[in-house]
Each structure stands twice: as C-alpha cells, then as structure tokens.
C-alpha cells in the first residue's frame, strides 16, 4: 500500500438504528491501521442520556450500569473527529456506522466528515462469496478471527480490522487476470474499494507470481477442478463383532459411547449390500444414523471395488455428508475416500454463457456485483455448483441466466458438469439428491446404471421429490417478465437491440423483423385476453364466498374455453419458429460478430429457450388430459392477474417412484432409511407410497431410553376447543399460553404452527401486548431472510422465540442449550382445503377408502414425530414438548400421537399447573 495511507476501522454500539428518532451511541471503538499494522486503538463508553433498551442490553451486554459514569458524545467529539480526519473510514456496514457518526458530529456542532470509505461487508461479499452469512460474527467464525464478545465495539472493531487485513491477503492471492477484471468493474461499487483493488493489481504486476491450481477457460481464470485421484489403500475387513466395532470407533473417537442400535444398523446394511437385498430402517435421532450407513457402505465399496450412491433430500444435507460425516469415516478408517457429488445440470455454471454476459457493456449494479463475486468464486470452486454462492436477490436473477441447460451443441473446453460426471466414474461413493435420481428416468443418457448399492437417506422425502419433479407451475408475472425482456421494436429491450444489430449489417431482411414484431404484439394481446377471461370466471366463482382475499380454485370448477388456450399455444409456437429462423440468419451472416453482437445473439437464444419451456408448461397444464393430476389456481383478489399461479401436481407419485427404482433394483441393493418412516397403527404408510414390497420388513431402531431422559411432554387440557370458538378467541388463548410459557422457560423456544395466517396473527397479538418485549421474536414469513438465516439469528440470543410453520417441523438442528422447549399450537393435520391434500383425499374416497385414517391422520403423526425431533438432538439435551391442542386428549385418535413419541414422561395438566411444573423443573 502507499505508505501514507491510514485506515480508521470504526465500530459503534447504539440504543437503536435512528439518531433522528432519538437513538444515541453507547460505545465507540476505533482501530488505526497503517501498512497493515495496528498503530493504536481507541475505545470509550458513551452516555446516551437515556436508558438502554433491554434487547440492546441482551445483544451487546452493555448495561445502564456500564455507562452510568461515562461522558456524553459531545465530550469526545473533537478528539474523534481529529483522529479519523486523515484516514480512509472502514466499517462493517459503513452506511450505518458512518451515517450515525455524522449525525452525532452534527449534534455536537462539528462539520460533516469528508473522506473515502471502505465497507468490509461489500468487500467480504466479493472476496468470500461462499460464506453463509456476511455478519461480522459469522465471518469471524468462518475465518478463525478472534471475536469473543460480538456486539461490543472494541472487540468488533479489532475483528473488523483483522477481516480487512485478511481481505487484503485474499486479494493478493487472486490471479492477475481476475484482479484486472475486478478493478475494471470496481468503480461501480458503493464504497471506494477500487483503490484497494488497484493497489493489489499493481503489486501483482510487479511481482509476477505464478498462480497455482489455476487454469483458464478462454478469458476467465478458474480453479483446476479435476479431482485428484486418491490412491486406494488396503482397508481392514468389516468389523463383525461388537468388540471389533468398538475398537475401530474408539481409535478415532476417544469419547465414543457404544450405541447398540447403530451397530445393528451397520450389520443390517452390510448384509443387504452383500446379498443384493432391499431393506428399510427407521433410525431415530440419537443412534448415529449417518455413520451407521456410511461405514459399511465405504468398506463394501472398497472391498469389492464397487460404487455406492447416497441420495439425500436437500443441498444442506449433501454438504453436511461430504464436509462433516465423511470426514469422520476417513478418520475412523484412516484413509481418504474418493467422493463425487452429483447434482442436476442446472445447478452448474455455464462458463461460455458467463463469458458472453461479461462482454456486455450495459450492466446494473446487481449484475456488476454478482460478476465480481463469480470471478473470485471461479478461482476457488472445485465443483462449479452455483448454490455455493451467497448472492442478493438481484444476483439470483443473474445466476439464472448463466445456469447450464441442455444444449444442442456440446460446450467446447472445460465444463464443470462434465467434470463432475467424469469424477463419478472413479469414485467409491457418489453423493446425490432424490430429484437427481428421479430425473434419471427421463435423462437421455442415464448416469446411475453403474451403482452396486444405494443408500436413500431421508427416504420419506422421496415422495416430495417425486411430487416436485412431476409438478408444472404457470406464473402470470413470469410470462409477463419474459415478454418484457424480449419487447417490441418500440421498447428499449432485447428485440430492439436485436433488430438494430440485424439492420445495421443487413443480416436479416426488414420484412422478417417486422413480421416477428407484429406476431409478438398479437401473441401478447391474445395471452392477456385469455388470462383476463379466466380471471373474470374465477372472480365470479369466489364472489361472496371467501373469508380472505387469498383464493384457491380447481381447474374443473372454472371450466375455461379450450379454443383461446389453444390459440395462445399456436401463436407462441409460430413466433418461436420465426425467432429461431431469425437467430440462424443473424448468426450465419458472413461478417464476423463482434462481442456485443455475440451477447445479443446469446440473449436471443436464452429467451427463446425460456419461451419454449413456457409453451411446454402451458400445454401440460391447460391442454393435456388431467386424470392422474390435480390442477388448481391460486390468486389474491387484491392483485389479479399479477398474483395468479396455476399448479399441476400428481395425485399419486407411487408409479413414478416405482418406474425409477425398477431398473436400480435389478442391479443393486437398496437401503431406505430415515428418522420417521412409520406411524403407530400404519407401519407401511410411507413404504407403500415408495412402492416397496410389503415383504420387505421395516426395521425400527430406537435410541436407548436414557437418550431422552432430559425430555418431558406436557398436554395443556384447558385450552379452548378450536371448533367451538372463533379463530380470534383461539389465537388469544394461544398467545396467552405462549407468553406465559416463554417467560417461565426464559426463551429459547420453538413455536410450531400449521398455518401461516394463524402464526402471523398470533405474533402480532403478542407484539401488541408487549408482554414479550424483553425477548427477540423471529417468525417465518414475518421476519425477513431464509430459514437458515432466521435460525442463525435465533441461536444468537438467550431470550429468543422462533415461530415456524411447514419447513420448521423438520430438518432443523438446534443443539444443546439453544432450545429449551417446543410448543405445538395445533396438531399438524393438513388443511382440508390444501389442494394436493384435497385431490389425494378425493382419489382415496373414490376408491372407497377412508381418507382420514389412510392419509390425514398418518401424515399428521409423521409431522408430530418430526416436531418432537427438533427438541432432543443429543443425550445431554433437556427440553419440554408442550401441546396446546386439546384434541390430543379428547379425540380417540389422540393416543396415536402420544404413542408416536419416544418413551418419555407425558403429563396432562392445565396451564397454571404447567407453569408450576416448568418453574420447578427449571430449578
């Protein structure tokens, strides 16, 4: 760096976010750094002139007592202003720290501070694009930066200084080509990072270092993703006795506790693999399921020089397998395992498409920022899987454009997807997902025909994956967005650019372009008219019948005229034929295309491809026979047609799963496993949907009773009957029970709902009551951010409550003290009006079967079991499972829910008694 350059790394703690609303500073810390060495630090508590809110005290651990003898900001203002006067201002979110500080300077009668600023949030997002979160505490944990007391200005400022320094080192590690491309774009950033990028580039040019593990795809530096083949060492034979297993596990894990059920699982899988058999294992939390199937699988693959495939449901589980669980196996077996992760083609980057997008001059800020993230990521990623990136909403739109999709022409040069397929040929173990396995059914060249053994983890989710694989969705706004992207000759969109480039060099006759334009205008008009008529019919159907503005209608209840639907399809196909011909004429012209024309042509092909997908979906939903599927409209009366979606889903996915598994059964053993595969009184509920023969026994493995010794279940008997009171009265009772329970357990509580509407109303009522103002409340669908982000935020606070629905019933890990209670507001029955459930129930009824006992009840019990599974994740955990729905004690089916729980103490009591029990238990 230039010797004279100094940085002031600043962090503030405040009573809130808005100085204009009276919020004030309570602590300031400044780290002065020059030549990447800390020259001095400055930190002070500041008296805010008011009491510090309790949630700020919980967050920062700064109390009124800490600041009682501190001076107000005005006493320090001149010194602070002078201290940072000749520095670049650096903070983790300069928009907050600098603007708050400027407001305090103004209040103290000082002029506005002027200078350059660098934001380490913006910098970290670019240089560490694979981080799950860009909050300072999370980045510090990822990068092993010391941060003992997050949200204390002194510790945060030092951590930010270290992050800034680490970012500089990361910049210097990048290839020169990457730095040149980044510097060129850096002037569009919000803070003055271009100066930093330029300094790094100058150093790189001066030293001319060789970049290891970097290869080049045309004009892009990428990590050499070729898998380094692991030499296969000789492994000990499978440990058949308990002593042999224990000796093997203890060698890698000195504190290993023997779990008999885990050893039984290992033996069962080892036998199934060797005998080419199918088996089903329900393995409850606490038996060590993942190691239980990985160990015999890897030993079998190595001993027989065969391949094992492990399929999971989510990307998160895939990553957990590869980054955590397989490392345990390598430690136990003292060997490296050849692992290949395989995802669908659309998960990978299309490098050729990315290069074309980079060549285009007209970029938005989101495009620029995402390109910078991608340039850095490409020098790090071994896989080329785009989900590794953490990008903004606008960034996601850019990623959609550069996903790899099936092409008529194969990509020339390096390709991450092809590399993944190649890696899988030498692997002992392939890790994939259920969707990938199911889509192999329609793949031109199946890729799962060389597998000797299958482990299907989270097996019950194969049903959901098959449902998603066979679903078709029409979105009105998506169609209109695509129409807008293409545009007409009059719009400043793609077709105008395409036609101007074509006219400029006489690539396409004017008459052809005018015909294209005319057809597109007609297509849009007919599409709008058709949707308009459909909306009128839907509004007539629901008028006066709906309690809320959100509506659901089945296609058979709307009875749309077929002719207009067919006309949209014909017009779209005709336009596509003309557009494809125009694209060929543009490309085949003798004159060489320049970079801008290459980009315009690639955009033209991209949006043609998108419209080809739309025409297929239109015909699938509106023009094909619907016997085995259910089709319904969802819309909000306040915004039609903008909110209109049409869904088509299969009523019965068993035939799809059977078709996928039939060829696999002929050549491989199949192990189905999950924590929840059975329900009391209906052991085959899941296996029959998966097409597994009744002759295949379901093995149920339960953790020892001692594992659940820290758990108790409580059924609250004095809640109102929801069928006897209004929803408002029930919500009031629920809010009362939640607030009392939370205050007694002091937070760390999950509250599980079955409906988003009830969740939102309950949270609003609790907030209005102010009874939980001392607690941080996080609510799915109310608090912004993804499920994982909400969960991470929840875990940071002792006094916190998380309200969740749907996905929070399953697959959420909150180990140890982070969770003390789970409150079940209602037994998790599907709503009778939920379209897929309604269609499946109708299907069963037509067959003369009972939809309640065969579908509704077992599904609810499955979710109930999964809800309990959130509470106890290790033998050291302690927690209360509280059910507010009195039907569990008043209805005949209630005992089946209780039987689904592990062997724990279950008490039925009224709310006041529950609070006494919780208070006693807490002590």
UniProtKB/TrEMBL annotation:
Keywords: ATP-binding, Exonuclease, Helicase, Hydrolase, Nuclease, Nucleotide-binding. GO terms for molecular function: 3'-5' exonuclease activity; ATP binding; DNA binding; DNA helicase activity; DNA-directed DNA polymerase activity; hydrolase activity, acting on acid anhydrides, in phosphorus-containing anhydrides. ATP binds at residues 283-290. Belongs to the helicase family. DinG subfamily. Type 2 sub-subfamily. GO terms for biological process: DNA replication. Pfam families: DEAD, Helicase_C_2, RNase_T. Residues 248-506 form the Helicase ATP-binding domain. It is an enzyme of class 3 (hydrolase). HAMAP family: DinG_exonucl. A motif (DEAH box) lies at residues 457-460. The gene is dinG. 3'-5' exonuclease. This is 3'-5' exonuclease DinG. Gene3D superfamilies: P-loop containing nucleotide triphosphate hydrolases, Ribonuclease H-like superfamily/Ribonuclease H.
């Amino acid at each position: 760096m230039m010797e004279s350059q100094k940085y002031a790394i600043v962090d503030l703690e405040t009573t809130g976010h808005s100085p204009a609303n009276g919020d004030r500073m309570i602590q300031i810390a400044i780290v002065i750094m020059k030549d990447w060495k800390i020259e001095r630090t400055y930190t002070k508590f500041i008296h805010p002139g008011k009491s510090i809110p309790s949630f700020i005290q919980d967050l920062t651990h700064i109390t009124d007592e800490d600041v009682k003898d501190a001076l107000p900001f005005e006493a320090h203002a001149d010194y602070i202003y002078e201290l940072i006067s000749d520095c670049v201002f650096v903070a983790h979110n300069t928009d907050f720290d600098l603007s708050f500080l400027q407001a305090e300077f103004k209040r103290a009668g000082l002029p506005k501070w002027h200078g350059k600023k660098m934001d380490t949030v913006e910098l970290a997002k670019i240089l560490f694009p694979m981080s799950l979160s860009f909050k300072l505490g999370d980045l510090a944990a990822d990068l092993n930066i010391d941060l003992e007391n997050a949200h204390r200005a002194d510790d945060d400022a030092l951590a930010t200084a270290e992050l800034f320094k680490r970012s500089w080192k990361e910049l210097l590690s990048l290839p020169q080509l990457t730095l040149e491309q980044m510097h060129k774009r850096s002037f569009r950033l919000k803070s003055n990072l271009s100066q930093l990028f330029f300094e790094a580039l100058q150093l790189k040019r001066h030293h001319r270092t060789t970049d290891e593990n970097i290869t080049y795809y045309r004009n892009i530096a990428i990590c050499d993703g070729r898998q380094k083949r692991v030499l296969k060492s000789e492994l000990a034979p499978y440990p058949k006795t308990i002593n042999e297993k224990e000796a093997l596990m203890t060698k890698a894990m000195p504190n290993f506790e023997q779990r008999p059920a885990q050893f039984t699982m290992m033996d069962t899988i080892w036998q199934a693999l060797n005998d080419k058999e199918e088996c089903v294992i329900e393995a409850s939390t606490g038996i060590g399921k993942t190691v239980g199937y990985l160990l015999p699988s890897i030993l079998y693959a190595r001993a027989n020089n065969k391949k094992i495939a492990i399929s999971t449901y989510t990307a998160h589980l895939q990553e957990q397998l590869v980054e955590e669980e397989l490392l345990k196996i390598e430690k136990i077996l003292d060997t490296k395992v050849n692992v290949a992760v395989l995802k669908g083609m659309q998960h990978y980057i299309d490098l050729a498409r990315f290069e074309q997008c980079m060549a285009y001059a007209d970029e938005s800020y989101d495009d620029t920022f995402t390109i910078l993230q991608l340039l850095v990521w490409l020098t790090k990623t071994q896989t080329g899987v785009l989900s590794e990136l953490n990008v903004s909403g606008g960034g996601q739109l850019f990623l959609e454009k550069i996903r790899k999709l099936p092409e008529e022409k194969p990509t020339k040069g390096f390709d991450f997807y092809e590399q993944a397929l190649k890696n899988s040929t030498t692997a002992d173990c392939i890790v994939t997902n259920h969707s990938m396995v199911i889509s192999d059914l329609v793949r031109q060249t199946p890729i799962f025909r060389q597998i000797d053994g299958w482990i299907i983890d989270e097996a019950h989710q194969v049903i959901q994956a098959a449902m998603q694989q066979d679903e078709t969705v029409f979105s009105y706004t998506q169609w209109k967005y695509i129409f807008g992207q293409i545009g007409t000759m009059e719009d400043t969109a793609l077709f105008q650019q395409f036609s101007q480039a074509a006219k400029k060099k006489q690539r396409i006759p004017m008459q052809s372009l005018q015909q294209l334009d005319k057809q597109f205008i007609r297509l849009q008009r007919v599409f709008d008219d058709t949707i308009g008529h459909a909306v009128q019919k839907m509004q007539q159907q629901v008028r006066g019948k709906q309690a809320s503005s959100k509506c659901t209608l089945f296609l058979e209840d709307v009875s749309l005229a077929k002719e207009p639907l067919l006309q949209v399809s014909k017009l779209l196909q005709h336009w596509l034929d003309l557009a494809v011909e125009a694209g060929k004429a543009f490309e085949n012209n003798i004159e060489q295309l320049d970079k801008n024309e290459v980009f315009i042509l690639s955009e033209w092909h991209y949006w043609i491809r998108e419209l080809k997908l739309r025409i297929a979906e239109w015909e699938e939903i509106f023009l094909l026979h619907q016997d085995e599927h259910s089709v319904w409209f969802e819309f909000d009366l306040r915004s039609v047609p903008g909110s209109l979606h049409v869904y088509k889903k299969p009523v019965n996915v068993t035939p799809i799963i059977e078709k996928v598994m039939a060829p696999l059964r002929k050549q491989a053993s199949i192990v189905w496993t999950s924590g929840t595969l059975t329900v009391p009184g209906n052991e085959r509920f899941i296996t029959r949907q998966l097409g597994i023969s009744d002759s295949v026994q379901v093995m149920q493995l339960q953790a020892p009773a001692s594992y659940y010794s820290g758990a108790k279940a409580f059924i609250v008997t004095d809640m109102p009957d929801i069928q006897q009171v209004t929803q408002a009265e029930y919500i009031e009772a629920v809010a009362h029970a939640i607030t009392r329970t939370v205050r007694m357990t002091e937070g760390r509580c999950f509250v599980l709902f079955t409906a988003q509407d009830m969740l939102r109303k309950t949270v609003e009522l609790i907030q209005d009551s102010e009874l939980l103002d001392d607690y941080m409340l996080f609510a799915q669908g109310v608090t912004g951010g993804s499920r994982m982000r909400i969960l991470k935020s929840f875990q940071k606070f002792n006094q916190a409550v998380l309200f969740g629905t749907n996905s929070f019933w399953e697959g959420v890990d909150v180990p140890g003290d982070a969770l003390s209670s789970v409150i079940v507001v209602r037994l998790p029955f599907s709503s009778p009006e939920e379209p897929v459930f309604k269609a499946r129930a109708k299907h069963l009824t037509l067959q003369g079967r009972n939809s309640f006992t065969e579908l509704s009840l077992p599904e609810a019990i499955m979710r109930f079991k999964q809800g309990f599974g959130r509470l106890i994740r290790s033998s050291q955990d302690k927690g209360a499972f509280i059910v507010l729905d009195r039907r569990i004690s008043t209805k005949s089916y209630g005992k089946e829910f209780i039987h689904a729980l592990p062997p724990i103490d279950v008490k039925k009591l009224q709310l006041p008694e529950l609070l006494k029990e919780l208070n006693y238990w807490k002590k």
